[in-house]
Amino acid sequence: MQAVVLHAFGGPENLRLESVPDPSPGPGEVLMRVQACGVCYHDVINRRGNLPRTSVPAILGHEAAGEVIEVGPGVEGWSVGDRAATLQRLSCGECNHCNDHRPSLCKEDNRFFGEEIPGGYADYMTAPVAGIGRVPESVPWPVAATACCTAGTAIHTLRTRARVTPGETVVVTGASGGVGLQVLQLARHDGARVLAVTSSAGKAEALTDAGADEVIVAPDLHFSRQVRELTGEGADAVIEIVGSATFDQSLKCLAPGGRLVVVGNLEAGIIQLNPGLVIVKELEIIGAYATTQKELQEALRLIDEGVLRPWVSGVLPLEDASRAHARLEDRGVVGRLVLAPSH
């Protein structure tokens, strides 16, 4: 089969299309013919060598969708011809965290597609059934591929972790990315007032179109003053998708009792934290990691019913993976780019 293989960490040029042996499913796995695979900034971080569990050579890609063409030993409930999309990572389903409905915290089987498990930058991939969800017939492949990491993450972040309720004000940093655009739509659907933050004026129209009540353009990434001017006391919740570069501003724009939910850290930087601010305003700093199977199915349902509009900004051939990575690093993408094998 054809696959984009990373043989050495570094720049986008290290992603190269080549022929590799076809995979075969082991116990508890299915073999998927990949129809589409999203390109996430997580992939960029992985390609650079900043994720310690990845070793080269590697096939990246945790946003894959395709048709089941073979079922491995012991698999029940899946058949040849079924449509499937991957989660970001696995969970065992049996440990204390899984039984407590917190599979994102599972340590018994926390393998990640594109890291320990070869990912979707390929014609075919194997996937443990614990790490896939069912795709409705009406959902196109590029949309299905991105559903988990965009809409699923929005559900996990906004509903499960931030616990946003109608009438609250939510700020979203990095709002023009695949996750941000879904958070905007979901927050608006759930009855929140939504403030979108972007560093590029050219992306403001897309953010308004996605449901933002206000768009704050902050090329210098200083936006807390504008948030306070727009809200009075500040925001009830901030969905922090950028990470270290905006963390301080996000914390400052919270109202008393506000929640800062950290779901992204694009540059893997270090932040300085003033504990006094957290104490006197009784703020919550909350992590958000991975979409669950239940959240993936909810994401696909909301997309299928038209509640969430997918934001696939381009579909590129598999051999253009390096170009897709370069466009992400140049901040030239609104929404999600998707790779499509030619088969």
Description of the structure:
This protein is α/β, with parallel strands linked by helices. The chain has two domains: 2-149 and 291-340, Medium-chain alcohol dehydrogenases, catalytic domain (Quinone Oxidoreductase, Chain A, domain 1); 163-287, Quinone Oxidoreductase, Chain A, domain 1 (Alpha-Beta Complex). The chain contains ten helices and 15 strands. It has helices at 41-48, 96-99, 141-161, 178-189, 204-210, 224-231, 247-252, 275-280, 293-304, 321-329, and strands at residues 2-6, 15-19, 29-39, 63-71, 83-86, 124-128, 132-134, 169-172, 193-198, 214-217, 235-240, 254-262, 284-287, 312-317, 336-340. Strands 3, 4, 5, 6, 7, 14 and 15 form a seven-stranded mixed sheet that branches. It has a six-stranded parallel sheet with strand order 10-9-8-11-12-13, sandwiched between helices. A two-stranded antiparallel ribbon has the order 1-2. Strand 1 (2-6) and strand 2 (15-19) form a beta hairpin. Helix 3 (141-161) packs across helix 4 and helix 3 (141-161) packs across helix 9 (293-304). The termini are close together. The model has no long low-confidence stretch (mean pLDDT 95).
Reported by name, the CATH topology of the largest domain is Quinone Oxidoreductase, Chain A, domain 1
Characterize the main sheet: 7 strands, mixed
N-to-C order of helices and strands: EEEHEEHEEHEHEHEHEHEHEHEHE
CATH architecture of the largest domain: Alpha-Beta Complex
N-end to C-end Cα span: 9 Å
Q: CATH homologous superfamily name of the largest domain?
A: Medium-chain alcohol dehydrogenases, catalytic domain
- What's the rounded overall pLDDT mean? 95
Number of helices: 10
Q: Low-confidence parts lasting 5 or more residues at pLDDT below 50? A: none
Total E-strand runs: 15
Structural domain count: 2
The helix-and-strand class reads alpha/beta
Residues in helix, %: 25-40%
User: What is the overall silhouette?
Assistant: globular
**So what's the CATH class of the largest domain?**
Alpha Beta
Rg, nearest Å: 20 Å
Strand content: 25-35%
